[in-house]
Design brief:
The chain is mainly beta. It has a single domain (3-65), classed as Thrombin, subunit H (Beta Barrel). Helix content is 0%, strand content 46%. The protein is globular. The mean pLDDT is 91.
């Protein structure tokens, strides 16, 4: 399962084969967002400012997400 921490350490993003990306608060583990994708997620990464989340899958597709907006 791919996991990424936001640059400020406040959030954790995870992706899985069930085609979802989940974003949780790091301290409380409260689920903030669950984003359905059309394929399994192999990698997740936050941008340096933490405003953008990128996800990638084995079919070489990269999705750019802005969950905070």
């Amino acid at each position: 399962m791919p996991v990424a921490f936001s640059p400020n350490g406040e959030f954790i993003a995870s992706g899985s084969d069930d085609q979802t990306i989940k974003i949780r608060h790091q301290e409380t583990c409260q689920l903030l967002y669950s984003i359905k994708n059309s394929r399994g997620i192999n990698v997740v990464a936050f941008s340096p400012d933490g405003q953008i989340l990128a996800s990638g899958s084995s079919d070489n597709i990269i999705d750019i997400l802005t969950p905070w907006r």
